[in-house]
Write a structure and sequence with these properties.
By secondary structure, the protein is an alpha/beta fold. It is built from 14 helices and twelve strands. β2, α2 and β3 (about 80) form a beta-alpha-beta unit.
C-alpha cells in the first residue's frame, strides 16, 4: 500500500494463528471478504506482443528507480508510471465514474489492496487475466498466495507486495509504547496518529480490546470508531495520515502511531530511533494487487509488465528498495547473497514466531460496510 524513500519518506499499501510468513500471507489471501455480486467481468485482458504505450497507477514510492526504465528498454515500450493511489477509497471514488462507463481513464494497470481488488471485481470493473501471458506468475508466485478466497486461481488479480500494519514508534521519545491501547495514553496527547485507511486502523483498535477483527460485528466496528472519536475530541490524536506521516516522525511531532512495516525500515535510514513494532496483540497483514481495468488500452503491455516483475532478480531489486514482503519465490535467496541484512530483516521476511498473533485484514459488505464507512469518514474528515 505503501512505501518510503530514505531521503524523501512517503507512505505506506499488503487471521488466526500463523505458522510461517508464507502461511500468514496465505491466511490473508484466504480470509473473509466481500461476496461477489455475480457482476464480475467476464472480459479477458489479452496478451500478445509487448510494445507501445503503458500507463500504470500505483502507490507513491512503491517501486525502485530502475525497473520501469529497464522494462521500457527491454521491450521498446513507453511507460507512464503515476503515483496516484494514496488511499483505496479515494482512488475508487476517482475511478468509479470512469469504470462504470467502461473507461479506465487511459490506465492499463493499477494496484489496490485485497478488499478493494475484490470490490472492483464484484462490480465488474476489472478484466480476467490471460494466464498464458504471465508464465512467470504461474512459476514464481508463492504457493500461499495462489488461491485466495476472493480470487481462487488468481483469475483477475496478481499480488504486487505484502506487508504488515502495526506501530511506528520513536523509541527515544515513546519507549514504552507496545500496544495499540498505548496510543490512548494521555502522556502522548497530541503526539500520536492513526491511518486514514479504515481497514488498517479500526481492526487494530478492536484487536487491542480483545475482539477478533475477522469475527467482529457491525457494532464492534462502530464501538471502536467511537473510542477513536473520543481520542480525537480530546486532542489525543494529532491527525490521521496516509503517505505523509514520515516527516512528523522524523521531526518528533509524532512519537507513536499506526503505520506500515516497510516504511519503518526506510525511515530508520534517516533516524535510527524510528522503528516498527509488532503490537502486543498482533498486527494485520495485507497484500496489494495488480488489476487490469475494463476499457484498459494495451493489455498486452500490462500483462508483460506483470510478467517482467515476477522474475526473482527483478523483484529482489524492488524489495530492496520498498522493504515490503515480495510475493515472488527466490527473492530471499538472492538477497542473502547481495544484502544479508535485508534478507534477515523480520519486517521483510518475518518468521513464524514473529507473525503468530497476526490476523487477516478484515472486510465488510452490504449495509454494514456503508454504515461503518460513513461513520469512519465522518470521523477523519471531522
Amino acid at each position: 500500500m505503501r512505501a518510503t524513500e530514505s531521503k524523501q519518506a512517503g507512505t505506506k499499501r499488503l487471521a488466526a494463528a500463523i505458522a510461517t510468513l508464507v502461511a500468514s500471507i496465505a491466511l490473508v489471501a484466504c480470509g473473509g471478504g466481500l461476496q461477489s455480486s455475480g457482476s464480475d467481468s467476464t472480459e479477458t485482458a489479452s496478451g500478445g506482443k509487448v510494445t507501445g504505450n503503458l500507463t500504470i497507477s500505483n502507490w507513491p514510492l512503491y517501486i525502485d528507480k530502475n525497473t520501469v526504465p529497464n522494462f521500457d528498454s527491454k521491450y521498446g515500450t513507453k511507460t507512464k508510471y503515476i503515483e496516484d493511489v494514496n488511499d483505496n477509497d479515494e482512488f475508487f471514488g476517482k475511478m468509479q465514474p470512469l469504470l462504470a462507463s467502461g473507461s479506465s481513464g487511459g490506465r492499463s494497470l493499477f494496484v489496490v489492496t485485497d478488499w478493494m481488488a475484490e470490490k472492483m471485481n464484484s462490480l465488474g470493473y476489472v478484466q480476467q487475466l490471460d494466464q498464458s501471458a504471465i508464465p512467470n506468475v504461474q512459476k514464481n508466485l508463492i504457493p500461499a498466495l495462489q488461491n485466495p478466497k476472493f480470487d481462487p486461481g488468481r483469475k483477475y488479480s496478481v499480488p504486487w507486495q505484502s506487508g504488515m500494519t502495526g506501530l511506528i514508534v520513536r523509541k527515544d521519545l515513546a519507549p514504552d509504547v507496545k500496544s495499540i491501547n498505548d496510543l490512548f495514553d494521555p502522556k502522548y496527547k497530541g503526539k500520536v496518529s492513526m491511518l486514514t485507511e479504515m481497514r488498517d486502523t479500526v481492526p487494530l483498535v478492536m484487536k487491542a480490546d480483545g475482539i477478533d477483527p475477522n469475527n467482529a460485528t457491525e457494532q464492534d466496528w462502530l464501538d471502536a470508531i467511537d473510542k477513536i472519536k473520543g481520542a480525537v475530541d480530546s486532542g489525543q490524536i494529532r491527525r490521521f495520515t496516509g503517505n505523509d506521516y514520515a516527516s512528523d516522525f522524523t521531526s518528533g511531532n509524532l512519537v507513536a502511531g499506526i503505520g506500515w512495516s516497510g516504511d519503518a525500515v526506510q525511515l530508520q535510514a534517516d533516524n535510527p530511533n524510528i522503528e516498527w513494532r509488532m503490537p502486543t496483540q498482533g498486527c494485520s497483514i495485507w497484500s496489494d494487487n495488480f488489476e487490469i481495468p475494463v476499457g484498459a488500452p494495451n493489455t498486452a503491455a500490462a500483462l508483460g509488465f506483470i510478467n517482467y516483475v515476477y522474475q526473482p532478480e527483478v523483484m529482489a531489486k524492488i524489495t530492496k528498495y520498498v522493504n515490503y514482503v515480495a510475493p515472488v519465490k527466490g527473492v530471499k535467496q538472492i538477497l542473502e547473497k547481495t544484502d544479508p541484512e535485508l534478507a534477515n530483516n523480520e519486517l521483510i521476511f518475518p518468521s513464524d514466531s514473529f507473525t503468530k498473533n497476526c490476523f487477516t485484514q478484515p472486510t465488510l459488505s452490504g449495509d454494514s460496510e456503508t454504515k461503518v464507512t460513513k461513520a469512519f469518514q465522518n470521523l477523519i474528515t471531522g
